[in-house]
C-alpha cells in the first residue's frame, strides 16, 4: 500500500473521476426524485431559500454559483409550479425577491428523501468507514472555494 501512496496522482485523471462521479450522482438523484418533479438544481435553489441564504435573485445566484440566465430559468420553472413566489424588492424595484412556498417546502422534503435514498445506493460500494473518509476528503476539497467568484454582474 505504501508504494501506491508514493505514486503521484494524475491530476487530469482525478479531475475526470470527479466529473464522472458528479454526473453519476446527479443522474441517480434526478432519476430517483422524478416523481416529485424536482431535480438537484431545483432542490439547490429551494434549499437556499428555505435556509435563508438568499432573498434576491442576485444573492441566490451568487450563493449557488449559478449564472443569471440559468437561475432565471430555474426560478421561472419553480414559480410556474407554485413552489416559489417572486416579487419586486420593496427597497429596490429593479430587483426581485424570491421566497419558497408551503408547496415548495413539501416538495423539497419529498425530493430530499428520494435524493438520500439514491445516494445510499451509490455509496453501497463503500464501507461505513470509507464513506466517512470520502465525506471528510470532499468537505476539505470544496472548502477551498469558500469565496467563489460571483456570477457576471448583470441587471436583473
Mean pLDDT: 89
As residue ranges, the low-confidence spans are 152-156
Helix content: 55-70%
Label the structural class: mainly alpha
Order of helices and strands: HHHHHEEHH
Structural shape: globular
Termini separation comes to 54 Å
| Proportion in β-strands | 5-15%
Q: What Rg do the Cα atoms give?
A: 18 Å
What characterizes the major β-sheet?
Answer: 2 strands, antiparallel
Order of strands, main sheet, comes to 1-2
* Secondary structure tally: strands: 2
The helix count comes to 7
Describe what you observe in this structure.
The protein is mostly helical and 156 residues long. The protein has seven helices and two strands; from the N terminus they run H-H-H-H-H-E-E-H-H. The chain has helices at residues 2-6, 11-32, 40-50, 57-64, 68-80, 102-123, 128-143; strands at 84-89, 92-100. Strands 1-2 form a two-stranded antiparallel sheet. Helix 2 (11-32) packs across helix 6 (102-123) and helix 3 packs across helix 6. The radius of gyration is 18 Å and the shape is globular. Residues 152-156 have low confidence and may be disordered.
Amino acid at each position: 500500500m505504501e508504494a501506491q501512496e508514493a505514486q503521484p496522482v494524475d491530476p487530469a485523471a482525478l479531475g475526470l473521476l470527479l466529473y464522472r462521479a458528479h454526473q453519476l450522482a446527479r443522474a441517480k438523484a434526478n432519476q430517483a426524485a422524478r416523481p416529485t418533479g424536482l431535480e438537484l438544481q431545483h432542490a439547490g435553489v429551494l434549499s437556499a431559500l428555505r435556509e435563508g441564504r438568499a432573498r434576491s435573485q442576485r444573492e441566490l445566484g451568487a450563493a449557488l454559483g449559478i449564472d443569471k440566465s440559468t437561475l432565471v430559468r430555474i426560478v421561472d420553472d419553480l414559480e410556474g409550479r407554485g413552489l416559489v413566489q417572486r416579487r419586486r424588492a420593496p427597497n429596490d424595484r429593479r430587483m426581485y425577491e424570491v421566497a419558497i412556498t408551503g408547496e415548495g417546502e413539501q416538495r423539497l422534503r419529498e425530493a430530499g428523501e428520494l435524493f438520500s435514498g439514491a445516494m445510499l445506493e451509490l455509496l453501497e460500494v463503500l464501507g461505513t468507514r470509507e464513506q466517512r473518509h470520502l465525506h471528510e476528503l470532499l468537505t476539505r476539497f470544496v472548502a477551498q472555494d469558500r469565496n467563489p467568484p460571483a456570477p457576471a454582474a448583470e441587471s436583473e
